[in-house]
Amino acid sequence: MFVDQVKVFVKGGDGGNGLVAYRREKYVPMGGPAGGDGGNGGDVIFEVDEGLNTLMDFRYQHHFKAKRGENGMNQKQHGKNSPPLVVSVPPGTTVKDIETGRVLADLTEHKQQAVIAKGGRGGRGNARFATARNPAPEIAENGEPGEELDVQVELKLLADVGLVGFPSVGKSTFLSTVTAAKPKIADYHFTTLAPNLGVVESQDHRSFVMADLPGLIEGAHEGVGLGHQFLRHVERTRLLLHVIDMSGLEGRDPYEDFLTINNELSSYDERLTRRPQIIVANKMDLPEAEKHLEAFKEKAGGDITIYPISTATRTGIDELLYAVADKLDELPKQDTEEIEEVEERVIYKYEKEEAPFKVTRADDGAYVLYGEKIESVFRKTDFSRDQSINRFARQMRGMGVDEELRKRGAKDGDTVRLLDYEFEFVD
Questions:
Q1: 190 is in an annotated binding site
Q2: For the whole model, what pTM was predicted?
Q3: Is residue 214 annotated as involved in ligand binding?
Q4: 90: annotated binding-site residue?
Q5: Residue 194 among known ligand-binding residues
Q6: 191 is in an annotated binding site
Q7: 311 annotated as a binding-site residue
Q8: Most buried residue among 76, 127, 203, 279 by CB atoms closer than 10 A?
């Protein structure tokens, strides 16, 4: 089965917790703090494997979680960092954050990698908090949680040449004639339910990859037929072969077919109108084909180049492949305009730093604190130790939480909520 679009959940590994420990060795009086730092959690990395051509593996696994880092150990030993979780994807894979729509990665080359979810940093052990004022601290940090997000993984086939046209115009037969590919072929519409790839070699030993895409019909860009599902694969092809049934056996006008398909391409993405296109007049061995070809040339204009072929008798195929190879030699290997722009947030020095916290009121009257920085500090705090709790209180005071709550009218005994934790405000 061909799978080209899936939604998956990815999560970086949590960081390991720091340790509170002390040296307790003979002949080492007052040995001091010796708790080590926790290890970093593993990243989730997508890596291109050119041996894959579908997202089939994602059909059976929708969750990818990297391992957490090891906790810190005694004698200031650092917990082991977790290795990254490497997920193999086919070339042409685009990864988007479902919540924001941001493009996280566009992977096109073999072994190319992208970090999709970062692992959390390990927490610091109590050896890191020793000072002259507090030489034996009972403070250690919990590890940061790893990033987690839902992503949409899309595959856009990377082929040099894409075959487009109405159903049953002979695209699959043409592909099977010029390559070793064995697509399903029958005399009814939508025989091709999934894209087929094949490697073509011309008589002068120039080779390229050709993709047979499911037939397009009028309204394909709006989801009619199979067009909307597979039009995305046309985006990555360098050259289009527009295959037209010149026999007219199905009662359609070949020139109208030509206009309809081009309209569907432009309606899906205006850039496709600028894609080089070679017109292929197929089924020229049938009786009415020559007459329809002359009428087509009259309507299209005399300067248009059309390659008449017959896949049944193999006439005209070699000349067409030479023309395709010549055209590909002129085109760049990859059209950078078609590569998805991966958005990267760059923080400049003059940008105003985001507030460390925000305050709102809940329906029950409690004051609710939220914000990336204060939540991060909260998650790293070990609330099983008094010194850690006191340090957290000092950190909140330093951020201005106490002052802001007073401005909002908070009084002694009022409930303050942060994530799942509740505490009383003391003025």
A1: yes
A2: 0.70
A3: yes
A4: no
A5: yes
A6: yes
A7: yes
A8: 127
284 is in an annotated binding site: yes
Is residue 315 part of an annotated ligand binding site? no
- From first to last of its 427 residues, the chain has per-residue pLDDT tens of 456 678 999 999 999 999 999 988 777 777 789 999 999 999 999 999 988 877 878 878 899 999 999 999 998 999 999 999 999 998 888 999 999 889 999 898 899 999 999 999 999 999 999 999 988 899 999 999 999 999 999 887 777 888 888 887 877 788 888 876 554 454 544 444 456 777 788 888 888 888 877 766 555 445 544 544 556 667 778 888 898 988 887 778 888 888 888 887 888 777 778 888 899 999 898 888 899 888 888 888 766 788 999 888 888 989 999 999 999 888 876 554 445 555 554 444 444 567 888 999 988 888 999 998 999 999 999 988 889 989 998 998 899 999 988 888 888 888 999 988 888 888 7
- Does 285 belong to an annotated binding site? yes
Q: Is 312 annotated as a binding residue?
A: yes
CA contacts within 13 A on the Cβ side of 414: 18
* 193 among annotated binding-site residues: yes
Is 297 one of the annotated binding-site residues?
no
Residue type, 206: R
111 annotated to a ligand binding site: no
Q: Is 94 annotated as a binding residue?
A: no
215 is in an annotated binding site: yes
